Amino acid sequence: MLLGKKRKLGRMIDEITIGEKLSLTEKIEDKDLLLYLGLTDDANPLYIQHDYASQTPFEKPIVPSIMLTGMITSAISKYLPGPGSHILSQEIEFLKPVYHYGTIEFLFEVIDVKSEEHIVVISVIGTNEKKETVINGKIKVCPPHRLEEIHGRALDNF
Questions:
Q1: What is residue 99's three-state secondary structure?
Q2: C-alpha to C-alpha distance for 93 and 136, rounded to whole angstroms
Q3: Phi and psi dihedrals of 118, rounded to 5?
Q4: Would you tell me which of 20, 115, 145, 146 could form a disulfide with 110, CB atoms 3.0–4.6 Å apart?
Q5: Handedness of CA 115, 120, 121, 123 (dihedral sign)
Q6: Comparing C-alpha atoms, which of 23, 21, 22, 33 is closest to residue 102?
Q7: How many helices and strands in the chain, by DSSP H and E?
Q8: Cα(63)–Cα(44) distance, rounded to whole angstroms?
Q9: Are 14 and 115 in contact (CB under 8 A)?
Q10: What is the strand order of the sheet 119-127 is part of?
């Protein structure tokens, strides 16, 4: 149990400024795809069957869009703002397919800080190995809240 233990939280809203950037590179490996497809029980032939995908306009299997969304969400949870943050909404466009074994470079940028509403707006752009933009999006995030010291009153909900 974590009661009374220090938790590493991301940055609070007053520690975040417009213009901050985070760059993150993700390589799509077989193990990642198989784990995702196994967890979701998603058997879309476009994601896993080379013979089927070769007959589509994509020409080869593509990475599921929701898996790419998961990479974006993970970056928000881990780095910007970090642990304790919560995504309120997201608008993400998948402009081009991402293929198996591809590498995506994500660039996150804080484009608005709404202190009164406790919201940070972050843009995300994903580019592939050819420097083509494959993902474009905007995410509204609630950064971590300041925690009260642990004492009797803090445990009322348990």
A1: strand
A2: 5
A3: 60, 50
A4: 20
A5: positive
A6: 33
A7: 4, 5
A8: 11
A9: yes
A10: 21-27, 103-114, 119-127, 133-142, 86-94
Rg (CA), the chain: 19
First to last CA, the chain: 13
* Residue 58 to residues 53, 93, 96, 97, 158, Cα–Cα distance (Å): 7, 17, 10, 7, 52
**pLDDT digit string, tens, across residues 23-46:** 999 999 888 888 888 888 888 888
Beta bridge pairs of residue 103: 27
Look at the alpha carbons of 141, 146, 151, 156 in this order and tell me if their dihedral is positive or negative.
negative
Which residue in the block uniquely carries the two structure tokens 């940055």?
A: 11
Q: What is the pLDDT of residues 59-112, one digit of tens each?
A: 999 999 989 999 999 999 999 899 989 999 999 999 999 998 999 999 999 999
pTM, two decimal places: 0.83
pLDDT at residue 1 in the model = 44
Q: Which residue has the tokens 């909900």?
A: 157
- Give the 3-state DSSP-derived string for 76-90, with helices as H, strands as E and coil as C: HHHCCCCCCCEEEEE
Q: Could you count the other beta carbons within 10 Å of the beta carbon of residue 91?
A: 10
